[in-house]
Amino acid sequence: MPRYKLTIAYDGTEFCGWQKQFPHADAVPAHMHGFRAGDPVAWETEAGVEEHPPAAAPTTPPAEAVDDPRVRRELRTVQSVVERAVRLVVREPVVVTGASRTDAGVHARGQVAAFSTLETERGRGWPAERGTLPLMRAVNARLPDDVLVRSIEIVPEDFNPIAGAAAKGYTYSLWCADHRPMWSRRTVMHLWHRMDVGAMRACAAEFVGEHDFAAFAATGHGRLTTVRTVFGCEVIEESAGSSGHGSEEAEQRGWPRAEGLTGEARGDVQRLEIRVWGNGFLWNMVRIIAGTLVEAGKGKCGPERVREALRTGDRRLAGPTLPPHGLCLEWIRYRDAGRP
């Protein structure tokens, strides 16, 4: 029984997170109920998994259905969409298990998932000799445009994407300017003023190492221990105006310097990327760390306050939880892939 490891990227804007969910119908916005037009749709029969042509009509249920407490409509999550696409290809009800349960609105470039399938049975399954490239192409052909399987590889049958993870890396992206971003508004948080990067870096250094991160976790995280090890925490400042639009040669020929609709190539934009990687993270931990560093960039927090928060576990000493759309899961490393 071959087992396949998938590396997945997705724009989390229109997803209720990674994990499959069946909450009360009025718990989330209506546009996240059910599946979007173009998403893979399937049903299971005795003959296996059958494909259903995408419906042309909108997938949002009528208002009376949303208000009906008896409705148990599956929400649009990344796991659900990927799992349905895989089932259509291998024609059996496989379960796709993800390594990280990203929240609604959080993006990923390096989510890892895995599933096992039959070698072959009446045209079902995906034998290893058929190769991973055709499998990846077939799955991607059935995925919507906000999800992409970047790679597929064969792994040992006991590969566990959750338990086997040795390190995870996240970024939180900030756009600091007197105007909002246009093209990148789904993936960066906008701040109206420039940040003191030196102060942010001084606080970032305090997070490195093994600490009790109780002050940097959301209430109800559900973990037995709040001790985690952060391998690194950095604040990267991108060079101003490095959008790649235009060139000196083009300007000399009469082409104006491109700035986008809102001046996204202007030199007054400060683009920051907070990078955090460690052996594991509590619920909202990276977003709270990022919020604390933003407070430092505004001159409202110093290294001594971070140390006190780590020592006491007092959530009031940490910064706010930043919105999910600036967060991205970049990569996950495994113990057999070298030292994190």
Descriptive notes:
This protein is α+β, with helices and mostly antiparallel strands. It has 2 domains: 3-155, Pseudouridine synthase I, catalytic domain, N-terminal subdomain (Alpha-Beta Plaits, 2-Layer Sandwich); 165-337, Alpha-Beta Plaits (2-Layer Sandwich). It has 7 helices and 12 strands. The strands form 2 sheets. Strands 1, 4, 5, 6, 7, 8, 9, 10, 11 and 12 form a 10-stranded mixed sheet that branches. A hairpin with a 2-residue loop joins strand 2 (42-45) and strand 3. Helix 2 packs across helix 3 (132-140) and helix 4 packs across helix 6. The radius of gyration is 22 Å and the shape is globular. The protein starts with a strand and ends in a 6-residue tail after the last strand. The model is unreliable at 28-34, 42-68, 240-246 and 259-263 (pLDDT under 50).
Summed up:
With 340 residues, the chain is α+β, with helices and mostly antiparallel strands.
Helix segment tally: 7
**SS-based class:** alpha+beta
Mean pLDDT: 82
Distance N to C terminus: 30 Å
Oligomeric state, counting identical vs distinct chains: single chain
Spatial shape: globular
CATH superfamily of the largest domain: Pseudouridine synthase I, catalytic domain, C-terminal subdomain
- What share of residues are in beta strands? 15-25%
Any idea of the CATH topology of the largest domain? Alpha-Beta Plaits
Please give the CATH architecture of the largest domain.
2-Layer Sandwich
Query: pLDDT under 50 segments (min length 5)?
Result: 28-34, 42-68, 240-246, 259-263
Number of domains: 2
